[in-house]
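quick one before i forget lol
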Amino acid sequence: MRDKLNDWAGRAKDFSRPRSGDDWPWKLVAVPLLVFLVLLVLLGMYWSAEPEPFDVETAAADRAIETDSRLTTGSYTTSAVITAMETLLDKRGGYLSNDIMPPSIWLDNIPNWEFGVLVQVRDMSRSLRNDFSRSQSQSAEDVDLIIAEPKFNFDNKSWVLPATESVYREGVDALYSYLDRLQDPGNPDAQFYARADNLREWLGHVEKRLGSLSQRLSASVGQVRLNTDLAGDAEAVQSTQTSSQIKVKTPWTGIDDVFYEARGAAWALAHFMKAVDHDFESVLQKKNALISLRQIVRELEATQETVWSPMILNGSGFGLFANHSLVMASYISRANAAVIDLRNLLEQG
């Protein structure tokens, strides 16, 4: 009996012992695959770096020098929109929101950052077309801005036929054409009217965007809010009745999405505000509103501080861990309050 047990043990040992050469096909597949995955992770980390801010004055001056033209009213704002879009398309990894291959398909922080920038570009291009380039409501629209504004409103996730990048570049080319005509002293057709009412219209869009972002960021911890949809008007009605109290909470999977969308929006707005500082300087000085605008820029720039945490934390309001969304909401809310004050200043005579 002992001999049989020893024999079986010997056979089992022989069976479990790796045979020379049996595992080499697996190594040929596993090792390169592992290396490939590591390289994809490193590439994704490299592409996930947010672009650095650019200098608005330099962007406008470079185009004027390149075309041997002059800087004029509207040069800074138009150049800021162009440079923001070119940064969106030409940064590390290019435009990622419509990519369907790894590592882009695994990334979500930068695509949400891109969307935040894109929304602000869309709002500004709409204001350029409807307000800044027109002297009054009955005046004709600019021929280049008619092209640019709908191009930037194209589907931001179209992969092919046509690709999003190609459509957005057509919009950028149309803005370049508008800018060149704007800076040509012999071409009076292209205009940029720096008036207080035009600026108030654009700031109205900014106010609503920042207010929405602030609410979505604050909802990271979950709140029960009173329904104020019809507040301030006793005769107001709405299409569908809602509860007097509303519970709002951003899903935990969307916390970082909202955070990076807000960072992208603030990045773009900071540049546009700096451009407005130049193009509307005389209007802002007359209203004694330059300081108010520059305070908005400071609040927006504060949102671009380095995030040292490897992930966006969602601690409770006064809990042990940080809540990055609430910190971002604080800056966005202060910027929004300053925008409201600036609009009020511009409305005064």
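fyi The beta strands are 223-226, 245-248.
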